[in-house]
């Protein structure tokens, strides 16, 4: 499967995700600059990486969400192309309107940088088919603005539609209903604050993240 | 024309920064503070003939995230 990684000024997990995608797919991802107007034609996944795009000026992910390449990402996501946003990428996807709600400053105001326990809430999405529902996994988080907010009505709808993909199994940042990762209505867009791309090799301290990419690759090529 | 755009968190949206400021004021001995909400002020200089719809568009499309924030525009 061919993949693309979007690179904004200030992205800093673009190489991590590129290494992870290459390890799992065997193909080097295409790195796509934020100023480009189009995505490569034949990709099966677009990753929006972590970092501090545009210095996170105004709001985290706000300026990146209005960059030329994001118009193409929004358009292709609408046609069903899988899009994965991690950390700052999740913030970009909410700001771009691909996912509901917003990511606010962590409740305790601290930048949280550690491994956290997560529960996989659904295994029936393209992104989580490598896991069992209810399974406990461990991914690192590293963020200041991961406190997910949506109004109660939206939260109820998201829960009802099975769109919570990952939930924190411990207190991390004050996220509503402990939401750590969220799917769009069609299930082809996932945004998550934790970093699966940093759990690919045993040397990373575990391989829980690798199964996300393996499951995704199988689901996309099936 | 100068514009001041005030962006504030919607009522009901938790404001951890406002809460920290509230706490710090309390530590300084300012006990009478009931609540603190932090927002932003964005100053713009635009052409005099910029219409209200355009100004509103700038606020809605970029300056404020209307999921969590309200905005108010003052023309100077």
TrEMBL record, chain A:
Top-level taxon in the UniProt lineage = Bacteria
List the pathway annotation: Purine metabolism; IMP biosynthesis via de novo pathway; 5-amino-1-(5-phospho-D-ribosyl)imidazole from N(2)-formyl-N(1)-(5-phospho-D-ribosyl)glycinamide: step 1/2
Q: Which GO terms describe its molecular function?
A: ATP binding; glutaminase activity; phosphoribosylformylglycinamidine synthase activity
Which interval of the chain is the signal sequence? Answer: none
The answer on whether this UniProt entry bears the keyword Nucleotide-binding reads yes
**Keyword check for DNA repair:** no
EC number(s): the record gives 6.3.5.3, 3.5.1.2
Q: Which GO terms describe its cellular component?
A: cytoplasm
Q: What chemistry does it catalyse, as a reaction equation?
A: N(2)-formyl-N(1)-(5-phospho-beta-D-ribosyl)glycinamide + L-glutamine + ATP + H2O = 2-formamido-N(1)-(5-O-phospho-beta-D-ribosyl)acetamidine + L-glutamate + ADP + phosphate + H(+); L-glutamine + H2O = L-glutamate + NH4(+)
Keyword annotations for this protein, in alphabetical order, are:
ATP-binding, Cytoplasm, Glutamine amidotransferase, Hydrolase, Ligase, Nucleotide-binding, Purine biosynthesis
Q: Where in the cell is it found?
A: Cytoplasm
Q: Active site located where?
A: 87, 195, 197
- Could you give a single Gene Ontology term from the biological process aspect? 'de novo' IMP biosynthetic process
State the protein's purpose: Part of the phosphoribosylformylglycinamidine synthase complex involved in the purines biosynthetic pathway. Catalyzes the ATP-dependent conversion of formylglycinamide ribonucleotide (FGAR) and glutamine to yield formylglycinamidine ribonucleotide (FGAM) and glutamate. The FGAM synthase complex is composed of three subunits. PurQ produces an ammonia molecule by converting glutamine to glutamate. PurL transfers the ammonia molecule to FGAR to form FGAM in an ATP-dependent manner.
NCBIfam families in the cross-refs: FGAM_synth_I, PRK03619.1
Quaternary structure and interacting proteins, as annotated: Part of the FGAM synthase complex composed of 1 PurL, 1 PurQ and 2 PurS subunits.
The protein's name in its UniProt record: Phosphoribosylformylglycinamidine synthase subunit PurQ
Q: Which gene encodes it?
A: purQ
UniProtKB/TrEMBL annotation, chain B:
Q: Which UniProt keywords apply?
A: ATP-binding, Cytoplasm, Ligase, Nucleotide-binding, Purine biosynthesis
| GO CC entries | cytoplasm
Q: Name one Pfam family in it.
A: PurS
* Molecular-function GO terms, alphabetical: ATP binding; phosphoribosylformylglycinamidine synthase activity
* Enzyme Commission identifier(s): 6.3.5.3
What is one Gene Ontology biological process annotated in the Swiss-Prot or TrEMBL record?
'de novo' IMP biosynthetic process
InterPro entries cross-referenced by the UniProt entry: PurS, PurS-like_sf
Subcellular location, record wording: Cytoplasm
The keyword Ribosomal protein belongs to this UniProt entry's keyword annotation: no
Q: Say which domain of life the source belongs to.
A: Bacteria
Q: Which reaction does it catalyse?
A: N(2)-formyl-N(1)-(5-phospho-beta-D-ribosyl)glycinamide + L-glutamine + ATP + H2O = 2-formamido-N(1)-(5-O-phospho-beta-D-ribosyl)acetamidine + L-glutamate + ADP + phosphate + H(+)
Pathway field of the UniProt record reads: Purine metabolism; IMP biosynthesis via de novo pathway; 5-amino-1-(5-phospho-D-ribosyl)imidazole from N(2)-formyl-N(1)-(5-phospho-D-ribosyl)glycinamide: step 1/2
Where does the secretion signal sit in this chain? none
Describe the function of this protein: Part of the phosphoribosylformylglycinamidine synthase complex involved in the purines biosynthetic pathway. Catalyzes the ATP-dependent conversion of formylglycinamide ribonucleotide (FGAR) and glutamine to yield formylglycinamidine ribonucleotide (FGAM) and glutamate. The FGAM synthase complex is composed of three subunits. PurQ produces an ammonia molecule by converting glutamine to glutamate. PurL transfers the ammonia molecule to FGAR to form FGAM in an ATP-dependent manner.
Quaternary structure annotation from Swiss-Prot or TrEMBL: Part of the FGAM synthase complex composed of 1 PurL, 1 PurQ and 2 PurS subunits.
* UniProt family annotation: Belongs to the PurS family.
Protein known as: Phosphoribosylformylglycinamidine synthase subunit PurS
Q: Which organism is it from?
A: Sphingomonas aurantiaca
């Amino acid at each position: 499967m061919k993949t693309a990684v979007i690179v904004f000024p200030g992205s800093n997990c673009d190489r991590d995700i590129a290494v992870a995608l290459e390890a799992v797919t065997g193909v080097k991802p295409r790195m796509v600059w934020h100023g480009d107007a189009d995505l490569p034609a034949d990709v099966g996944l677009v990753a929006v990486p972590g970092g501090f795009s545009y210095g996170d000026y105004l709001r985290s992910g706000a300026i990146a969400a209005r960059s030329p390449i994001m118009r193409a990402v929004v358009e292709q996501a609408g046609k069903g192309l899988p899009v994965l946003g991690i950390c700052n990428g999740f913030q970009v996807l909410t700001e771009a309107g691909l996912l509901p709600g917003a990511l606010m400053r962590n409740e305790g105001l601290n930048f949280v940088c550690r491994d956290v326990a997560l529960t996989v809430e659904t295994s029936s999405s393209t992104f989580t088919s490598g896991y069992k529902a209810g399974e406990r996994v461990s991914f690192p988080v590293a963020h200041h603005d991961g406190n997910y907010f949506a109004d109660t009505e939206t939260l109820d709808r998201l829960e009802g539609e099975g769109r919570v993909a990952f939930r924190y199994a411990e207190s991390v940042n004050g996220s509503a209903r402990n939401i750590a990762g969220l799917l769009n209505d069609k299930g082809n867009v996932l945004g998550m604050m934790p970093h699966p791309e940093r759990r690919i090799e045993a040397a990373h301290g575990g391989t829980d993240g690798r199964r996300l990419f393996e499951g995704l690759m199988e689901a996309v090529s099936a | 024309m100068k514009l001041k755009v005030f962006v504030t968190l919607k009522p009901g949206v938790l404001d951890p920064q406002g809460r920290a400021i509230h706490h710090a004021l309390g530590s300084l001995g300012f006990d009478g503070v009931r609540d603190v909400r932090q927002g932003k002020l964005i100053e713009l200089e635009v052409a005099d003939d910029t219409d209200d719809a355009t100004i509103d568009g700038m606020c809605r499309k970029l300056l404020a995230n209307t999921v969590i924030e309200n905005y108010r525009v003052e023309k100077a």
